[in-house]
Amino acid sequence: MHKISFGIGLLKRLLGLAAVIFGVVTLSFCLQLFTGTDPAEIIVRKQSVFATEEQIQAVRQELGLDAPFGERYADYIKGVFRGDLGTAITNKKPVIGNILEALPATCMLIGMAMFWVAVFTILTAAFSVILKGGIFDNAMRIICILGICVPSFWLALILLTAFAVEIPVFKVIFDGSLKALILPSISMAFPVMCISVRVLRASILNELKSDYVVYARARGFSNSQVIYGEVLRNALPAAITIFAQYCAALFGTSALVERVFSIRGLGYYLMEACESMDVYSISGSILICAVLFVLFNTAADILSGIICPAYRRKA
């Protein structure tokens, strides 16, 4: 019975996922339309400062920008399903190709950052609860409050100056190695760690009030056995949701950290597109980031249901 209800819930989530992605694609199309920027004019002005209106109109017709709204929307939807996000204004290459070139570096960076977040969050939150009210718990509370307020790009500059300039343990310029990702991944992970620790700690403390915890303690289980045995698993859904949201959000907000460490990832590409007013690259990058955000949240919801049966019943 539980398997059937879980299957129905999973089907509902997948249908909701499809509807949200369709909405995201529509918003991406509207972004191209209502930015107030004419791609045809930008293309022509890059070739000649003294471009005429006739030249701009010719490019507009070539790109299909003068077509009716419905026709342009249908063409855009078809293009997205074919993997065609348009042609970048800056380098005349397909936007999807530019994004696929930039994505691996960002994926490696975010993957390492979220590895630090996962390990640090689970260990620190559990120890903080076990040693509640002690020196470790109070120290972590102060560090987390300060860490939440620290901007990633500022921490990136501090780490770069300290460990690549003053103490040259790492290289200033990204060389594609995993070692070169340590500093930028820590600078991206630290604020997320601090938030995740506070959320998971609060979730564990809330679970400790449950009846099954009282029963486990009555049977003689120690505090650490109760926390690591059952409580942590039941407290994880809240942390998993935060983890997934920030993991997806970092794809779009990694620009400043990537710029500091000269990592030519998706965030760096999006920033360059904004500087050059490349509407096709901007809308394509935002579309990819938004789809990833939706996918990560859906995956977190499904994973929480698998790890924690109680969460599945509430969902």
UniProtKB/TrEMBL annotation:
It comes from the Bacteria. It holds the Pfam family BPD_transp_1_N. It is a multi-pass membrane protein. The chain crosses the membrane at residues 14-34, 108-131, 143-165, 177-200, 235-257. PROSITE patterns: ABC_TM1 (PS50928). One of its GO terms (cellular component) is plasma membrane. InterPro entries: BPD_transp_1_N (IPR045621), MetI-like (IPR000515), MetI-like_sf (IPR035906). It is found in: Cell membrane. Keywords: Cell membrane, Membrane, Transmembrane, Transmembrane helix, Transport. The keyword Nucleotide-binding does not apply. GO terms for biological process: transmembrane transport. Residues 103-304 form the ABC transmembrane type-1 domain. The keyword Cell membrane applies. PANTHER family: DIPEPTIDE TRANSPORT SYSTEM PERMEASE PROTEIN DPPB-RELATED. Belongs to the binding-protein-dependent transport system permease family. This is Glutathione transport system permease protein GsiC. It comes from Ruminiclostridium hungatei (Clostridium hungatei). The lineage of its organism: Bacteria, Bacillati, Bacillota, Clostridia, Eubacteriales. The gene is gsiC.
